[in-house]
Each structure stands twice: as C-alpha cells, then as structure tokens.
Amino acid sequence: MHTIKVIGLGFALMGLLLFLAPRLSISSGRPIPFAVRLFLPLWFVGALVNLWIGVSRAGYTVMEEAPIFLVVFAVPALAALLILWMTSRIAR
To answer: Which long-range contacts (CB under 8 A, 24 or more apart) does 48-52 make?
Structure first.
C-alpha cells in the first residue's frame, strides 16, 4: 500500500508541474518538455528519499528496497516520457 501511495505522489508531482509549467515564464513556450525535464530529476530524488526511508526506518536492506525503488521511479517517469512523446508527435 505504501508503494502505491508513493507512486501516487509521483503522479501528483507530475500533474502539478504540468499545471504550473504553462504559467511560468521560464518555460519559454514549451511547457510540457520543461515540466518533464524538471519532473524527472525531482522524482528521482523523491524515489531515493523513499528508498532511504525504507532502509533507515523500516529496516529493509538496500537489496530488498532496490526493486521497489525501480518501480516507484519508473512508473511515473515512464508516464511522463509517454506524455512528452505523445505531445511532441501531435505538435508535428
């Protein structure tokens, strides 16, 4: 259940960035690529924090927590890349 909640946080962060990117003047007219480029490193750090919490507080080893880290990072990251790919195909 915790893993699903963390993945949900990843989708929430992605949604927030996709919502805010068009409203920021620094996105230079390309808000979706800007949001995805900002999301990926932020989410990587967030997934690492989740890994660290699992190791330091929940008592798991890094080897036990590593597959969870991959799932937690990959699901929202792949969704963000899919959104980027689909919107870049439409723009052509």
So the answer is: 50/6
